Amino acid sequence: AQSVTQLDSQVPVFEEAPVELRCNYSSSVSVYLFWYVQYPNQGLQLLLKYLSGSTLVKGINGFEAEFNKSQTSFHLRKPSVHISDTAEYFCAVTYKAAGNKLTFGGGTRVLVKP
Amino acid sequence: DTGVSQDPRHKITKRGQNVTFRCDPISEHNRLYWYRQTLGQGPEFLTYFQNEAQLEKSRLLSDRFSAERPKGSFSTLEIQRTEQGDSAMYLCASSIRDRDTEAFFGQGTRLTVV
Which residues does chain A have with pLDDT short of 70? Predict the structure, then answer.
């Protein structure tokens, strides 16, 4: 079975400052990793995904994440946040034999302050 | 294609009533997933279909829950004899088997049981 731990439930950050959201996973098989963003009362939107290949993954809205197999981590970063980045962010994992069903972390709420 | 569509967006029901939600996936997607998200938590997997076949059900899906995808297109999720603990956001997602593994989410149906 897989599990995902998002180490920070809330991250306050000032506008134009960098942000890092931490994600650790556990799995006995090779995994695919995702970051999704959720705005209030909305569904989930994919920010980026790691399937294979380069461990540095670039996504939409200036976000990037780095897959670290030895540390079983997939941390999300943005060098300069905007007010519009205020949202909840979810890290998720799946693997091919799981029918691609996702296991999510508990989420990190990012609050960008002016 | 406008993406994954869920109906209704909001539902308030009295305890003990039955409710049914509908999900229309992206047209060429053969996989369809249901997740439940309670306040402040990440989504949890409930069940998924490949075409019309229901391939997996979570232990979260009690006997009061039933999901169908009769023609391999839209899906319904029914909850019988609703309880206050059923209050949550119900998310639907769809994907193409073996293509990028990315799941596209609908905007969800928020259920409130009073």
Answer: none
